[in-house]
Write a structure and sequence with these properties.
disordered N terminus, 8-stranded antiparallel beta sheet, Alpha-glycosidase_related, 26% helix, membrane, 8-stranded parallel beta sheet, Glycoside hydrolase family 31 N-terminal domain-containing protein, TIM Barrel, glycosidase
């Protein structure tokens, strides 16, 4: 029904004023949804009609043959009025007088849909129901809301396939007032009548009944609420036809396509659920991984830039400026993983900005950072808190992070620490025949990619390389000799790590101060004379008596006959009767001052070898004991000198260089020698750290045995010397560091090359190699240190070995001879020596002269491994049998017997071949390069645009 006309309203049965209390006739003709037309056969059969012949339709209970019982308590009445829907016809219900209703009518809820339920059949008279209906229409309708489920009565609604509904309310319970929520103002089910909005239909099924029970469609069970949700559009479209079975079936059939789509959506929902579950577990995994990673990288960037440190695992990683890892390792190896750190107490903290962490009762760690723009340095210091703990830090030796160098030449003669292997051993200078390290050591280690480690001199340092893993380990541990002096109550490990992008600047920072500082013009002249002129070492005689003035004079005659540049004549320690006399032996050298004067006039410079040892046979020993100038026995009253053995002396004391009286006494002796014999300079044969007495004790406590050589060199700088045999720090120029004595063998030749390159890398730019052909000859491996020996000059070396040795020495910073080329028969050796002298004078010396100023200023070596030319070239890292002189000369010597060809690698650039003068392109290998016996492969760098 779309509208209601006024004449239809007047023909309705009016309500009695007594029952309604006031006239609401204007609002009584609200049509029912099931009103039939005038031609309805049912209306004709029962004679029931209105003015427009629009009789009431058969009730739903009659049509559906279902009995509906309803217990309703009218408002204002305490006990319920029971209506019994019997078989009475609608006419009987209409004829019933409304005056029989003595109580106010029950307000029916608004919005109930008549097409969804049947009329109650329990009323005694239809007039009562009609009166109630009219009463309800005439009264003001209040908005009602659906009653909360928790307080509602128990209803049962059954909607069968025919559409019938049965509402059952227990008779013993008062039926509460049913409230239905007021429909929205914009509802399509409302109609405006006389200015008031009324329900277009009397009921709304969804608001007036409980949710339907589960329905089954096509063997699929679904809740009524679901069905209603899918069929709401159908319900609204079929309001007028829902009373019939066809309309209900049509309604369900219309919902069928949507149910099909729901199945598809359910399939999609199943896939979505699987995807959501997978994503859930992935998120859990990522969160767990991030949690573990966060705790493993605890303190990451907490204090410093470019450093990552995990306090629990003690993993340290340092990054470069472009966020690349340059070094990584584990600190505190001797601390158990179960021990956790905590922040130090206020009394144990430093005021220099250091971070302090402590492992209770085990060790304390300090970390600090220093930014010098170009450099980034991180200081690490461990303090042991228990006697059994030795602070130990280990860093990985990774091939892809470059090669490690430093410390000095080791017993295996490997030129890189990354290829070495040895267990923890004290870091001290020694004899490579029996000890782990050679005569030149330095607590400095550098990587080819630009990171360096420098360890404090006060640390009782023990080193280990590649023993179990590919690691470089440092440990602080005292022992009974090298680190017998406990500088601290418990051992401390202190070092710093510096990183930079430039190797030259890193060397200048880490290796040494500017070496030219304080040099005189005469000092520079000595340096250049040692580089440009040979050092001629007097041959060792079989007996001391055979070494005299005549020996020195005849040797000088042989040197002049060679036609080679004149240089320094180095006289060994046998110029004195006993080691430590510091006076010329008058029996063998009565006129030595005349011989020296003659040599000076010929152009030679004279150098005497001196030692800090004083033989017990020397007259100076008694004086030194009386004046307490010697190192004394530990735990004695400085009255018992500590004795040792060294070379030709079977029993000797050692001057206490920490005693100012000893320094003054020695200087006085040496100055007298220079004044009496016109000696130009001295060579300091200091021995090694292991040559000190085992129970040594100086007036001032030494940090370690190598401190002795350092103090001795510094104390005698004013005396003037050209070289030292042992060093733990760079001696002040013009002093050169000599290589240790080399065996006259092919292994000795390889050792020479490795030693010079290693010493250059750790900061010794001025190197004085041993004599051409070797310093001694041994055909067996030593297992014990020979503290008392006199290794004479080796027999005439093999000619091929001597040639290859002489070719290599031509490109060294300095050249030293003992066995002369003229000792070989024939003119071939002499000619070869002259040709090599020309190469050195014309090619090598200019490069050395140019590189010298750079070395003295920046600390870079004169002889360098190829990776210093191009640290990013991986091929340069793997080459150990080539080297460069400065950056302009590459040398590829032959180091094995019977070989006349080799593989040669040239770094980037254009290089001129020294054998055939051809140009060769760099960054490539030259395979099967021919090197005749009288030639050496070397290449001079040319400008990049050079072409023929």
């Amino acid at each position: 029904m779309n509208s209601i006309k006024e004449e239809e309203t007047e023909q309705r049965v009016p309500l009695m004023p007594s029952a309604l209390g006031e006239d609401h006739s204007a609002n009584t003709h609200i049509p029912y949804a099931d009103d039939d037309h005038e031609d309805s056969p049912y209306s004709q059969q029962n004679g029931y009609h209105l003015a427009k012949k629009n009789p009431r339709k058969m009730s739903l209970s009659d049509r559906r043959n279902v009995e509906l019982s309803l217990h309703i308590e009218p408002q204002g009445i305490g006990k319920p009025h029971i209506y019994d829907a019997g078989p009475e016809t609608p006419q009987t219900a209409i004829d019933a007088s409304p005056t029989t209703i003595d109580t106010p009518p029950l307000p029916l809820p608004r919005g109930l849909r008549r097409n969804s339920i049947s009329m109650p059949s329990g009323l005694n008279a239809l007039e009562d129901l009609e009166a109630l209906r009219l009463k309800h229409q005439m009264q003001e309708q209040e908005p009602v809301v659906e009653e909360d489920k928790s307080t509602s009565l128990t209803d049962s609604v059954v909607d069968d396939i025919s559409g019938s509904v049965t509402i059952s309310v227990p008779p013993e319970i008062n039926v509460p007032r049913i409230q239905i929520q007021k429909p929205d103002d914009d509802s399509d089910d409302e109609l405006e009548i006389h200015g008031k909005r009324r329900d277009r239909f009397r009921t709304r099924r969804r608001a007036s009944i409980a949710p339907l029970p589960a329905l089954r469609l096509n063997d699929k069970e679904m809740l009524a609420s679901d069905f209603d949700a899918y069929s709401v559009a159908s319900n609204q479209a079929s309001i007028t036809s829902v009373n019939s079975l066809a309309s209900l079936l049509r309604e369900k059939m219309q919902a069928f396509p949507q149910m099909i789509r729901k199945k598809k959506r359910e399939t999609k929902d199943y896939k979505i659920k699987i995807f959501v579950i997978i994503m859930f577990f992935m998120i859990i995994f990522l969160i767990g991984f991030a949690y573990v990673g966060y705790h493993r990288k605890l303190l990451t960037y907490s204090y410093f830039e470019k450093i990552k440190f995990n306090g629990n695992d003690r993993i340290l990683r340092i990054l470069s400026r472009d966020e690349k890892e340059v070094i990584s390792g584990q600190l505190g190896k001797t601390i158990g993983m179960d021990n956790k750190p905590f922040h130090c107490l206020e009394d144990n903290r430093k005021q220099d900005g250091s971070v302090c962490m402590e492992w209770n009762g085990i060790a304390r760690l300090y970390m600090n950072f220093l930014d010098k723009d170009v450099f980034r340095c991180y200081t690490i210091k461990w303090q042991s808190l228990s006697a059994g703990n030795y602070p130990t830090d280990c860093y990985e030796l990774k091939r892809n992070n470059g090669l490690w160098f430093g410390g000095g030449i080791t017993k295996s003669r490997e030129w890189s620490l990354s290829n070495d292997n040895f267990d923890f051993t004290p870091f001290s200078s020694g004899d490579l025949k029996v000890h782990q390290f050679g005569n030149g050591v330095k607590r400095y280690f550098i990587n080819s990619i630009g990171v360096a480690i420098q360890i404090s001199e006060k640390t009782p340092l023990h080193l280990s390389i590649n023993t179990t893993t590919n690691e470089f380990c440092m440990r602080a541990q005292n022992d009974d000799f090298t680190f017998v002096n406990h500088l601290t109550e418990l051992p401390e490990l202190e070092y710093k790590i510096c990183t930079t992008d430039g190797m030259k600047s890193l060397h200048m920072l880490m290796t040494q101060k500017i070496l030219w500082d304080g040099l005189k013009v005469s000092d520079m002249q000595i340096i250049k004379s040692l580089m440009f002129e040979p050092v001629w070492r007097t041959p060792h005689s079989e007996t001391m008596e055979s070494f005299n003035e005549t020996t020195i004079y005849n040797y000088s005659e042989d040197l002049i006959a060679l036609g080679l540049p004149l240089g320094h004549i180095l006289i060994n320690e046998f110029w004195q009767e006993n080691v430590g006399d510091f006076t010329v032996d008058q029996k063998r050298f009565p006129n030595l001052f005349k011989t020296i004067d003659l040599l000076h006039r010929r152009g030679f410079k004279i150098v005497f070898t001196i030692q800090p040892f004083i033989s017990t046979d020397s007259e100076n020993f008694k004086e030194a004991v009386r004046k307490k100038l010697l190192i004394y026995e530990r735990h004695s009253e400085r009255s018992i000198p500590a004795l040792t053995r060294y070379k030709s002396s079977s029993s000797a004391g050692v001057l206490d260089i920490t005693n100012n009286a000893s320094v003054y006494w020695l200087k006085e002796k040496l100055e007298k020698l220079k004044a009496d014999y016109k000696v130009n300079s001295f060579y300091l044969d200091l021995g090694t750290g292991y040559n000190l007495p085992h129970y040594y004790q100086c007036r001032q406590t030494l940090d370690n045995p190598d401190m002795y050589a350092k103090l001795f060199t510094e104390s005698l700088e004013s005396v003037g010397f050209i070289g030292v045999s042992t060093a733990s720090s760079v001696p002040k120029p013009p002093a050169f560091l000599s290589t240790q004595p080399l065996n006259s063998s092919w292994d000795g030749l390889k050792e020479l090359m490795s030693t010079v390159m290693n010493y250059g890398v750790i900061g010794y730019p001025l190197i004085l190699p041993g004599a051409v052909g070797g310093d001694y000859w041994l055909n067996k491996t030593m297992t014990k240190m020979i503290s008392f020996y006199s290794l004479g000059q080796p027999p005439e070396p093999d000619e091929e070995l001597y040639i290859r040795w002489l070719q290599l020495m031509t490109f060294m910073p300095a050249m030293q001879f003992s066995y002369l080329p003229s000792y070989y028969k024939g003119d071939q050796m002499k000619k070869l020596a002259k040709d090599l002298a020309i190469i050195r004078q014309q090619t090598v010396n200019p490069v050395l002269d140019k590189t010298l100023s750079e070395s003295l200023n920046e600390g870079v070596p004169l002889i360098r491994p190829l990776w210093m030319l191009d640290p990013n070239d991986t091929s340069c890292l793997s080459i150990s049998d080539e080297f460069s002189v400065g950056e302009e000369l590459i040398v590829a010597p032959i180091l094995d017997p019977g070989v006349e060809e080799r593989e040669v690698y040239l770094p980037q650039g254009v290089w001129k071949d020294g054998i055939d003068s051809s140009l060769r392109k760099g960054s490539r290998w030259i395979h099967n390069y021919k090197v005749p016996r009288d030639k050496i492969a070397f290449f001079t760098k040319m400008p990049d645009k050079t072409r023929f």
